[in-house]
Amino acid sequence: MLDRLPVEIVERIVTKIPDTDLIAASKVDRVWWQEVRREAYKRWKNYATTIRDVYCEIRALGKHYIKREIDWITFEDVNDLYKRWINCLTEDQLYIMEKMLRNGMVVDPQERETIEYALSEQRWGGDPWGLGVV
């Protein structure tokens, strides 16, 4: 009976695991698999929310530029920074999504289709989310 960690401890450990090692931790046992799956979905959602927020910042920046509230050089520098940030976040998000898909953690057919489409777009150099920031 003492050979297993309490679920609360597993939850705390899983939240500290980096994205690159997260799915590997699911191989320990069923409890770890469930906790890793829950954490992976949480990170997937957090990446999506952050990407949306950065995209909104890009749009707001564009509005300021159109109104001539900022100069062209500032606009280009900040815009490029935001685009690189979105690309980095998207890569991290797709990494988690792909690992979840390959390890049977995605059961919803629509989510599977979304992941497969996004991965295909990324492989061909496209914009997986259709944000037009590539």
Mean pLDDT equals 89
The low-pLDDT segments are none
Total of helices: 5
Beta-strand content estimate: under 5%
The largest sheet is: none
The quaternary structure here is single chain
Task: Describe this structure as you would to a colleague.
By secondary structure, this protein is mainly alpha-helical. 72% of the residues lie in helices and 0% in strands. It is built from five helices and no strands. The protein has helices spanning 7-16, 19-22, 30-66, 72-102, 109-123. It is elongated, with a radius of gyration of 19 Å.
Short description:
The protein is an all-alpha fold and 134 residues long. The chain has five helices and no strands.
Lay out the secondary structure.
Layout: H1 7-16, H2 19-22, H3 30-66, H4 72-102, H5 109-123
Helix pairs in contact: 1-3, 3-4, 4-5
List keywords for this structure.
72% helix; 134 residues; single chain; mainly alpha; 5 helices
